[in-house]
Amino acid sequence: MEWFGRAHINFTTSPKSLGLKGKDGKETDLLEICRATVPPCQLNPLLFNGHAQTMWTATKSHGPPLHYRRKIFEADHAEFNGSFAVDFAVTDPALRDKADDTLPPRTAYFTDDELSALGSDDDRPMLVILHGLSGGSHEVYLRYAIAPLIDSGKWEACVVNSRGCANSKITTGLLYNARATWDVRQTIKWLSKTYPNRPLFGLGFSLGACILTNYLGEEGTTTPLKAAVVVANPWALHISSKMLQSSFIGHNIYQRALGNSMKALSSRHKDELDKYTNIDTAHLLSLTYLYEFDRAYQCPTWGYPTEEAYYRDASSSDALLAVRVPLLAINAEDDPIASRLALPYAEAAVNPYTVLCTTSLGGHLGWFEVGGGRWHAKPVCNFLNRMAFEVDLDSINDNNAHRERAYGNPKHGTNFDPTRRKMHVKLNK
To answer: Which position among 29, 87, 294, 335 bears the catalytic label?
Structure first.
């Protein structure tokens, strides 16, 4: 039993965790690093359960101020064309004195001169961040997590905004879904080319955590990312959705709130949806719950027969099996949106590249401490700093047991590919 907000912390990983070596030559492993970088979880005792923690996120909290410059990318995928926005954190006073009223607070577009000056051969670590459903670079939970890294002066960071989010414009009828890995893939490829000496790291929240995990599974050993953290991943979307629909609070508060956020997003892009799709936008904008939105938009857009088929196909619990970079996954067991019943304990227990860290308290992207701080920022920053500055990133040693996707029974010629999906997507690697 938790006492005055003190949450229990558990770690799940393979019996033989991924072998690593410090830059000082000392042998270690991924589990040891995670245990050392995840601090005790002491939360505000007045927010005593997952509902209280989650609902408190709706209060007006300014959070750490971060400034961004926005770059618009034209998608390089033939089938999923269109544009998307990436916001780069900036600390240069010359770049922080502007803001565009059409964008989120403290955000402005790069000027043409600034865009032409992008790129360097420095070796500062670069963090690629994915936000939650209908969010963006302005989200408070995101800024709490990355502000210490940016303020330290040792990190660079950018946020890949899902199409249409954070006041970005769409130029086709495509928004995004939980399988929408192509924009983050393109961004990472661009960063690798533009900053060839920077080690790249990933960080995802909620739906963005699902997208990032799917990306990591699809890429396997070929991703340029050196390590990643995913926070409050819903993992098995069909389970989390059913759990929300099965309770009064889940259905009438969370499903309604999530549905309203997607309805508002669709309303902002109604002209494009009317122009480029056959979606009945009048019907779409009359809906109330998230699963109704997914049925009315995601299914016809991506060809799924039902929202349940979409949820099963877009879930990232199987993709976790194919991750081949050090990954710390953080979830609260009392999260009412990313249900405890969806947590991939079994998958984490067979992949030495992953550690699933669960706290008994915290809600969905809550983890509020006394005084308003957010606990999740501490393990995120600690882990990333440890991996970037203290671990020899070329020292991975798992005896090659999991280098390739090797699930199945060779004796009978069977094979299981964790990233094989029913929605066939050419990756454009």
So the answer is: 335
